[in-house]
Amino acid sequence: MNSNTPESCIRLVNMMFYAHHGVHREEHFVGSKYEVDAEMYCNYSQAARNDDIAETIDYRVVYEKIRHLVTQKKFYLIEAVAHAIAMEFLETFHQLNSVTIKVRKRNPPIGGVCDYAEAVYSTQRT
């Protein structure tokens, strides 16, 4: 990316889903609560100047893609969920320069008290 090109960030924070991921077989049956944050870095100056959603990333499309990947597919690892979302976004949103996805699993089955486990995956367009 050219150092003179402005870059901004669009964030969707704490999207919540109920899904069936996990290493243990029971997790695939019982399910758990998952939370996802998406940080999408791009230049949305043109969209801001023209006040035009067609020139930026539509939040509804972002949410639907995440919802589909989190609730319709089964993964063993939240790391794999975060990676799948990030790769889908680079494929889909040509405006993106880079993306960071955070996936949290509430009350992970670790044999003790823990609010959540979190996987963070960042990647950029090459």
From TrEMBL:
Q: Which residues form a coiled coil?
A: none
- Show the catalytic activity: 7,8-dihydroneopterin = 6-hydroxymethyl-7,8-dihydropterin + glycolaldehyde
Please list the residue ranges annotated as the Dihydroneopterin aldolase/epimerase domain: 10-123
Q: Give the EC number(s) under which this enzyme is classified.
A: 4.1.2.25
One Gene Ontology cellular component: cytoplasm
Q: Name one GO molecular function term.
A: dihydroneopterin aldolase activity
Q: Which UniProt keywords apply?
A: Folate biosynthesis, Lyase
Pathway(s):
Cofactor biosynthesis; tetrahydrofolate biosynthesis; 2-amino-4-hydroxy-6-hydroxymethyl-7,8-dihydropteridine diphosphate from 7,8-dihydroneopterin triphosphate: step 3/4
Q: Which Pfam families match?
A: FolB
**What InterPro entries would the database entry show?**
Dihydroneopterin_aldolase, FolB_dom, GTP-CH-I_C/QueF
Q: Which class of enzymes does this protein belong to?
A: lyase
Instruction: Please name the GO terms of the biological process aspect recorded for this protein, alphabetically.
Output: folic acid biosynthetic process; tetrahydrofolate biosynthetic process
What role does it play?
Answer: Catalyzes the conversion of 7,8-dihydroneopterin to 6-hydroxymethyl-7,8-dihydropterin.
Family annotation (PANTHER family): DIHYDRONEOPTERIN ALDOLASE 1-RELATED (PTHR42844:SF1)
Spell out the family assignment given in the record's similarity comment. Belongs to the DHNA family.
Name the record gives this protein:
7,8-dihydroneopterin aldolase
